[in-house]
Write a structure and sequence with these properties.
mainly alpha; two-stranded antiparallel sheet; 13 helices
Length: 339
């Protein structure tokens, strides 16, 4: 009797054994990855999760101060969502402990205006920084003499600390500063809403456009040059190459750059705080938080939590509807090639 197995049986068993071996290898790698990642996750939990949880707990407590009803000092206590209602609905405590709308000029009455100013600065600055950064990245991606020197020079504004940048532009936009002298104007840049906002926008664009250019440049350098050569051979114009090759292939890097810049702009504090002190319609949410800290920590914690939620929602929208789709399409193409 022959002891040899049928070739069909051999072929049917071999793939199964390979699959089992692959599963075991994946499980081993998964356990190893979990062991290596655990210390990092513990550190992140201590550095990030603890402050967030502590801020939420503080936001549910009442600030210490004088009781408007009795006129005596109170040590605070559990306040529930009173601090959140104070900011979102701009409700303050009036005479006799009644709830009234916060008077104009008080911090409680500035929440929605500060939110609008924050998003105004974010949209305007990110829009211009993306366009200028893309243009600068296209220039730096070309091969020419002195390209390394140009790339280093472009990064100088980004390397300067934000506080130094704010003070620099504060002197530039002074009444007798360089801006008025150069353009022969007599504009009081920090004296009214329009010029004050324009000064902050210009300073922010000068400061952070190199950051956008650097990230976009990294995406441009990942595009193979052979694609452009093939497009030229096929007769594609410069605009067609830009629209059909550059934009689609650089989109992942572009979305990451915009996401990072949007999250940073939503936390804007240094420029308006130093250049205008938050006056003339330049108070952002971060400035409002700092101003509230001087009055009460718990109410400021509630405002910080609201600001955190706003930034989280914006980040979720970007990742879910702008970033994730690109990742899924790329993974889909990879799976298609494997098949």
């Amino acid at each position: 009797m022959s002891t040899h197995l049928d070739p069909a049986v051999k072929s049917s068993k071999t793939p199964g054994s390979k699959e089992v071996g692959a599963d075991r290898k994946e499980k081993t790698q998964g356990r190893l990855a979990a062991i290596l990642i655990t210390p990092t996750m513990v550190v992140l939990a201590i550095v990030i999760a603890y402050p967030v949880v502590n801020a939420i707990i503080m936001s549910l407590q009442q600030d210490e101060g004088l009781d408007p009803v009795t006129g005596t000092f109170v040590a605070g206590g559990f306040a529930g969502f009173a601090n959140y209602i104070h900011w979102i609905f701009q409700q303050c405590t009036g005479p006799g402990g009644t709830t009234v709308s916060c008077p104009p000029g008080t911090l409680g009455a500035q929440f929605w205006s500060a939110t609008g100013v924050t998003f105004f600065f974010t949209v305007i600055t990110v829009f211009f920084e993306t366009i200028l950064g893309f243009w600068m990245a296209l220039i730096m991606a070309r091969a020419f003499r002195g390209r390394s020197v140009l790339r280093a020079a472009v990064l100088v504004p980004w390397a300067i600390p934000t506080a130094v940048t704010a003070k620099l532009w504060f002197f530039i936009f002074a009444f007798d500063g360089i801006a008025n002298t150069l353009f022969h104007t007599s504009i009081l840049w920090t004296g009214s809403e329009g010029p004050a906002r324009a000064a902050i926008i210009i300073a922010d664009i000068w400061k952070t456009t190199p950051f956008m250019a650097l990230l976009i440049l990294a995406g441009l350098q990942m595009i193979p040059g052979d694609i452009y050569e093939a497009a030229k051979v096929d007769g594609a114009s410069t605009w067609q190459r830009f629209r059909m090759i550059t934009l689609p292939l650089v989109k992942p890097a572009l979305m990451v750059a915009i996401l990072f810049r949007v999250l940073d702009a939503l936390r804007m504090y240094d420029l308006p705080a130093i250049m205008t002190g938050g006056a003339n319609g330049t108070t952002t949410l971060s400035i409002l938080v700092v101003n509230q800290i001087r009055i009460g920590f718990n109410s400021a914690a509630a405002l910080s939590t609201i600001t955190f939620l706003i930034i989280f929602i914006v980040a979720f929208i970007f990742v879910r509807f702008l970033g994730a789709n690109a990742v899924e399409s790329a993974s889909g193409e990879a799976k298609g090639k494997q098949k």
